[in-house]
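User: structure tokens for this one?
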Amino acid sequence: MKLSKALPVLVFILMQSAAVFAATDSVPAGITILPLAGITNDRDTTVSYLKLMVNSQATVRGIYLETEEQAKVDGHESRQVASKKIYWLKNIERHPGVVLGQGQGVKAIYLSGNIDSRGGRGSLTIRYLTNGIFMHYSQCKIGLQRVSRHNWELVNAYNGHRVKQIKVRTWMLGISTLANVCPNTLS
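Assistant:
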């Protein structure tokens, strides 16, 4: 395929939200979801919410991702849930991790790492596609820490600041950075 034909396909893939292609998953009984951060993408108006799933013993079971999109209802703009996806801890802890974002067979964003519920800490890696032509990925570390029994927060591994929002910034061939997570992209 010529480069000129491949670029529109790649741009379409990256315009899609992380969870638009995900199936709808329901949170199992006995699991509580705790908010961590919002995720936006400069290619569309969707907002995804990254949440931690814990059981009644406050043990982390996985990550829950809920994506909302803009919709017109009776002529008024509103937001509605477009998708829900569960990522179990056992899959996050396996190499290469779970795929948070993909489109047309291209895996654009991976999440992997370990979460120690007893110690109240986690070390995660987000790997993202920076060049779809050459299939080049970059990655950033992000911490997770328990603040109280049912309150956890994401922490920037490079400066120690709490991460409330992750901004996916793209360019023509992929993702340029994950602002507020990767070094030198704080805003």
